[in-house]
């Protein structure tokens, strides 16, 4: 078993090599558990477990779990999972018209 916590946080640029390594470990018969917020990594997974609904003391409960393909193709996000809503494209992050992130303090 391989357990890793937010491996993409330590990578500058693309996560393609990380994902390829994790998939190779899986193909060798290992169970891979990844705590991650990176969309590309989530889309590379087989199974999703969203723990929340919030962070810290506001979380700790399984909000949704299931095979990623089933969760993505379901008619509705019945769980109310925010993570699932983002990966399903039901929610998004609005950027300013110039495409730049908002500056600190307004």
Describe the protein.
- This protein has about 110 residues and is of the alpha+beta class.
- The chain has 2 domains: about 1-45, no CATH class; about 45-90, no CATH class.
- Helices cover about 25% and strands about 20% of the residues.
- It has 4 helices and 4 strands; from the N terminus they run E-H-E-H-E-E-H-H.
- It has helices spanning about 15-25, 40-45, 70-75, 80-85; strands spanning about 1-5, 30-35, 45-50, 60-65.
- It has a two-stranded parallel sheet. A two-stranded antiparallel sheet has the order 3-4.
- The longest helix has 12 residues, at about 15-25.
- It is globular, with a radius of gyration of 16 Å.
- The mean pLDDT is about 85.
Q: Indicate the low-confidence ranges by residue numbers.
A: none
For the termini, the CA-CA separation is: 45 Å
State the helical fraction: 25-40%
Q: In what order do the strands lie side by side in the largest sheet?
A: 1-2
Q: Could you tell me the number of beta strands? A: 4
Percent of sequence in beta strands:
15-25%
Kindly state the mean pLDDT as a whole number?
A: 87
Backbone shape: globular
Query: Radius of gyration, Cα only, in angstroms?
Result: 16 Å
- Characterize the largest beta sheet: strand count, sense, and whether it forms a barrel: 2 strands, parallel
Class per helix and strand makeup: alpha+beta
How many domain regions? 2
Q: Count the DSSP helices.
A: 4
* SSE pattern: EHEHEEHH
List the defining traits of the structure above.
single chain; 106 residues; alpha+beta; 2 domains; two-stranded parallel sheet; 4 helices; 4 strands; 20% strand; globular
